[in-house]
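Final report, Chapter 2: Outcomes

The project's central promise was a pipeline that accepts a single protein chain and returns its three-dimensional structure in a standardized token representation, suitable for archiving and comparison. That pipeline is now operational. To close this chapter, we reproduce one record exactly as it appears in the project archive, with the input sequence first and the structure output second.
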Amino acid sequence: MSNIITGSELRCPECGYKELIEMPMDYCQWFHECIACKRLLKPLQGDCCVFCSYGSVPCPPIQESGSLSACMGGECQK
């Protein structure tokens, strides 16, 4: 296993608030509520999770493989 970064800074596209969040290692997080403006963040079309859309680093499955096809378990399956 390579060096996986587990902390990602999510930036809200509505208000710009940045929050450092620990990413789950075994699933994709589809939703996150901004603590500043309460907007519910959802992945952009083609992304597997909120970290891949709004985070400073992609989610662990994507980091590990470098491919969106790696993220095919549980809720993340397209």
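Archive annotation: The radius of gyration is 12 Å.
This record, like all others produced under the grant, will remain available to the consortium after the project formally closes.
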